[in-house]
Specification:
heterodimer; A: about 200 residues; mainly beta; seven-stranded antiparallel beta sheet; 2 helices; 11 strands; elongated; B: about 800 residues; 22-stranded antiparallel barrel; five-stranded mixed beta sheet; globular
Chain lengths: ~200, ~800
């Protein structure tokens, strides 16, 4: 190889390097709103006879990040009182009021694909009795809503606290597109939510 | 146990068909140029039999041949390839004259690639015959026929090639001479290439093809198209393949010709359509594993004595379903999926494809030219690739048709090289390459992008040479590469970040080979390679299709998860030193080839189990891209016995042992040891049918005994309730499920060819003939379902 060829190759190489520093001016990517992420779940137990609702909130500060979820305390219920439980789901990365903010509303709109399942310990409830329908779909849970096929959803449920006791209360939301039936259990579909709270009845 | 008995029975049956015969014939000759001057280093391939390089007087000699039909190919850089079919009944000597390719109408880059793959010390080739027998399979599945090559699989339709245990960014695929650039970071992302375009596929296992890039730590896969036709008139083929499993149909056709009155011009058009429905295991359907694929390509070129150019365009497009039962979004879902005998959502057979699914398209435009000057030959090549990938997951209703990943990757490659051939003793090539790449997330996925936007610019300079030193052939190469990245993305909080960094380094290769009288060949090489990291390895964030695990890039902070600057972490580019030696020998009618290799990869990047994180969907294990030193040691062995002129028997073994040296641990998803035996009967024009054959092959895939520890999903679920550490304070690698057991597969095939002017080929074969249920360790879907069951394949080809 003669000197001329070496020079040509070298010049082309340098030319390539020069392009590298001039051509990398791209537009910034556009920020996505992320409506399907659930960053906060709020459980509101409203006493049937009126009074101050009991609220607990589970927040995931970083979604799929390494930090654990934060729960702002136990569910403190009064013995013998009947409550209506409503579950709110929020995507904190979307702007409040925007379409993707209220995930609970989306779940309601697609009730035929979603179902909440519940499990508890310590016999904290008088009604329903037992330990919930996560271990066995047929077990009692008092659903107060239903989808267009007449299957329960679970955004609204009713609970009567038992005598003084304590235990845990687990809520699981399943996404069951084309899979939800009158017998579909917690093992069916994909999990959208799975949180366990402390519960105490006084 | 039963499998061992089968193997022994099979081996015992082999000798039946042995008939005493004369296998002491020789076939020898000289290869000369058009003026009668000997060509030194020309490649002569005899099949069956193997390859040889002509000596200083242009001679070659194949000994211990049997009386039968042979196919002989003779190749030399700068000269047109010659093919001879010969029925050998007595020893023969032949004088072969090669014509300079400039006098022929040919695709210069192809010649160039062939020449260079020959300089590679350790390579294997799938020739046209093997490719025809594998027609209808994807590129990754086809490549599994090469010793030392396996695949990482994601269900029945997605195969990603693995060479000597390494894959993805560490394997370079050259499609028509252009580096294939797709979203290769994902284990479930298969190469976007239609194997029907290739006339042969060569796998270089020793990084010796340094001119294509210094980053091929594992090896290079070269997909070679056929040469453009040399004369006017139209030719082509039509190939139809149907399979019982998946009820798939493939139709591929090609037309080519020269142009009347325009000497030097040639053209080709080619296309393939494929459609498959749900595959099935011996026991159940694999719902949503069908796919659709449409590929086409066209090329036109001109060549004369001293110059030539060509334009090539290809399009690849596929829509493929991901097994419905692999959709999991929490660790509890994963446990349920593993416990099920039949995957969730299993339905009767259908061609429908629904979520989860992928839509992938790839366009390639290539322009190349060459000019033969006084001092040597100049070559120029430009390639543009447009790769689009959309991944659709099962999402809440309004987002059903919104992809969760939507990427567009554009790549420009530019190469210039100068080559000088001194016919007798040496060969020299210098060149440079540049690549500009831009990756964009298409707005509207309503997800935080899994990988950020980036642009990168790479440049490389290389020199390769080979020369003769006595009876030894030496080759050496050196290369310098530079790559700069600019990154723009959003972290887990959806906050904007940027990054910019560069890498540069040298790589080198050196090899020797020697040939003894056609019956023995030895070669050995040592090469170094290095690889800049892929952006996915640095910045990935989130969960992946069917993985049930969260993945974090190397640059994410361990405790805050925020993106850090690359200077803040102790990041080192991956570097490898690979040694490969091979020895082949022919004794009588037995030939064998053995290759051994060791590849030590410094700063090997892999997904390492890091811990568990609590999310609103329950506890999740999370993995982080980490670095370690890894050692890949293995051997490939092939043995072939021409029992009679009609019968051949062969045996092959591929062994691989991989260690995480730094942590004294095993790595996950490493292909296990494989052994196979085959018998083949060839009719040699019996019954008036050309190429009549029948063959059977038994493949034994061992269990991976060097797999990481198993931590059952239950242990993670338990940690969510009692707060214990499922990883027991150790960051050793783990797997959710033990490696599946060993398995046997029996495949059989038969076919013939007929017709004179128009040729008809018919082939019938069966894969997994015993309908064995089994799971393969390197299939990512092994947690969820068995591999596919018995599959009948019928292939019809008409060549005109």
């Amino acid at each position: 190889m003669n000197h001329k060829s070496v020079r040509v190759l070298f010049l082309v190489f340098v030319f390539g390097l020069v392009i590298s520093f001039t051509s990398c001016n791209e537009e910034d990517p556009q920020k996505e709103d992320v409506p399907e992420l659930i960053t906060q779940a709020k459980l509101t137990f409203t006493p049937s006879g009126g009074g101050v609702p009991v609220e607990v909130t589970a927040t995931d500060p970083d979604g799929e990040g390494v930090q654990d979820i934060e729960v702002d305390g136990a569910i403190n219920l009064a013995a013998g009182v009947t409550y209506t439980l409503t579950i709110g789901l929020i995507n904190g990365l979307a702007d409040p009021g925007s379409e993707g903010y209220d995930i609970g509303k989306e779940v309601e709109e697609e009730g035929d694909e979603h179902m909440f399942f519940f499990a508890w310990t310590g016999n904290v409830f008088a009604d329903p009795a037992g330990n919930g329908n996560i271990d066995n779909r047929g077990d009692a849970v008092n659903y107060a809503d239903e989808d267009e096929s007449g299957f329960p959803i679970g955004l609204m449920t009713t609970w009567t606290a038992g005598p003084s006791s304590s235990g845990t209360f687990r809520v699981v939301l399943k996404h069951q597109p084309d899979l939800k039936t009158s017998t579909s259990s917690v093992d069916v579909g994909e999990t959208d939510l799975d949180i366990t709270f402390e519960v105490s009845v006084n | 146990m039963t499998s061992r008995v089968l193997l022994i029975a099979f081996l015992l049956l082999l000798p039946f068909g042995v008939i005493a015969q004369d296998c002491s014939l020789t076939f020898s000759g000289t290869v000369t140029d058009e003026k009668g001057q000997p060509l030194v280093g020309a490649y002569v391939i005899m099949s069956p039999g193997g390859g040889q390089v002509t000596d200083v007087e242009g001679r070659f000699l194949f000994a211990n041949l049997c009386s039968r039909k042979y196919h002989i190919e003779i190749r030399f850089l700068g000269y047109a390839e010659q093919q001879i079919d010969k029925v050998l009944t007595q020893s023969e000597e032949l004088s072969i004259k090669l014509v300079p390719e400039a006098l022929q109408l040919q695709e210069i880059v192809v010649q160039e690639e062939l020449a260079h793959t020959e300089h590679a010390v350790n390579y294997s080739r799938l020739n046209q015959q093997i490719l025809e027998e594998l027609a209808g399979k994807s590129l990754g599945e086809t490549l599994k026929e090469v010793p030392g090559v396996s695949s990482i699989q994601a269900g029945p339709g997605i195969f990603k090639p693995v060479i000597h245990g390494v894959h993805s960014q560490r394997v370079l695929i050259l499609n028509h001479g252009i580096r294939q650039e797709g979203q290769q970071w994902g284990a479930e992302h298969a190469p976007e290439i239609d194997p029907f375009m290739a006339s042969n596929i060569t796998v270089i296992k020793d990084a010796a093809a340094i001119k294509y890039g210094g980053d091929a730590l594992g090896g290079v896969i070269v997909v070679n198209p056929p040469q453009l036709p040399t004369s006017s008139g139209v030719g082509g083929y039509l190939n139809a393949v149907g399979t019982s499993n998946g009820r798939s149909g493939t139709l591929s056709g090609m037309l080519e010709g020269g142009l009347d009155g325009f000497t030097g011009w040639g053209w080709r058009a080619q296309g393939t359509v494929k459609r498959a429905g749900d595959f099935f295991t011996p026991d159940y359907q694999l719902t949503n594993t069908g796919f659709r694929e449409v590929d086409y390509s066209a090329s036109v070129g001109f060549h004369d004595d001293s110059k030539g150019f060509e334009v090539f365009f290809s399009h690849f497009e596929t829509d493929l379903g991901i097994l419905r039962g692999t959709a999991v979004s929490s660790i509890e879902d994963l446990r349920a999926a593993m416990d099920r005998d039949t995957p969730q959502g299993t339905q009767p057979f259908s061609y429908d494809i629904s979520e989860p699914r992928q839509e992938v398209s790839h366009n390639l435009l290539k322009l190349n030219a060459h000019y033969q000057g006084e001092e040597g030959e100049w070559r120029l090549q430009y390639g543009f690739q447009e790769n689009k990938r959309k991944e659709f997951d099962i999402r809440r209703g309004s987002l059903e048709n919104t992809p969760s990943i939507n990427l567009s990757l554009n790549t420009h490659t530019f190469e210039l090289e100068w080559e000088k051939i001194e016919l007798t003793h040496k060969h020299l090539c210098f060149g440079m390459s540049a690549m500009y790449q831009s990756n964009q997330n298409i707005f509207g996925t309503q997800r935080i992008p899994f990988i950020p936007n980036y642009s990168s610019l790479s440049s490389g300079l290389f020199a390769v040479a080979d020369w003769e030193l006595g009876k030894w052939l030496l080759d050496a190469g050196v290369r310098y590469d530079y790559r700069a990245y600019q990154v723009k993305g959003f972290d887990f909080k959806n906050t904007f970040y940027t990054g910019a960094f560069q890498f540069n380094n040298f790589s080198a290769t050196m090899g020797v080979s020697r040939q003894w009288n056609g019956s023995k060949r030895f070669s050995s090489s040592v090469s170094t390679a290095w690889r800049p990291p892929h952006v996915a390895e640095l910045y990935s964030v989130g969960t992946h299709q069917s993985a049930a695990a969260i993945e974090y890039g190397l640059l994410l902070n361990d405790s805050t998860n925020e993106v850090m600057d690359i200077d803040a972490v102790n990041f080192q580019a991956e570097k490898a030193v690979k040694w490969v030696s091979s020895y082949s020998r022919k004794f009588g009618h037995v030939s064998m080839e053995a290759a051994a290799y060791a590849n030590y990869i410094f700063n090997y990047i892999y997904l390492r189990a890091q811990g568990v994180t609590e999310t609103l969907r329950g506890v999740y294990p999370y993995f982080k891209y980490s670095q370690t030193d890894a050692l890949f040691v293995g051997a490939d062995w092939e043995w072939e016995w021409e029992v009679t002129p009609h019968w051949t028997a062969d045996a092959k073994a591929s062994l691989l042992r991989v260690s995480d040296v730094t942590n004294n641990d095993y790595l996950i998803s490493i292909p296990s040891n494989q052994y196979q035996v085959g018998i083949r009967w060839e009719g040699h024009d019996q019954l008036g049918l050309d190429g009549l054959y029948a063959s059977a092959r038994l493949r034994y895939v061992d269990q991976q005994r060097r797999a990481p520890r198993v931590i059952a999903v239950d242990r993670f679920i338990q940690s969510g309730t009692d707060g214990s550490d499922p990883l027991d304070g150790s960051s050793a690698n783990f797997d959710f499920m033990a490696a599946p057991g060993a398995y046997f597969l029996l495949n059989a095939s038969a076919g013939f060819r007929t017709g004179k002017k128009v040729k008809y080929d018919l082939r019938v074969s069966v894969d997994n003939a015993l309908n064995n249920p089994y799971r393969e360790y390197t299939n990512r879907f092994r947690y969820y379902a068995d591999e596919i069951g018995r599959n009948f394949i019928i292939s019809f080809k008409c060549t005109f």
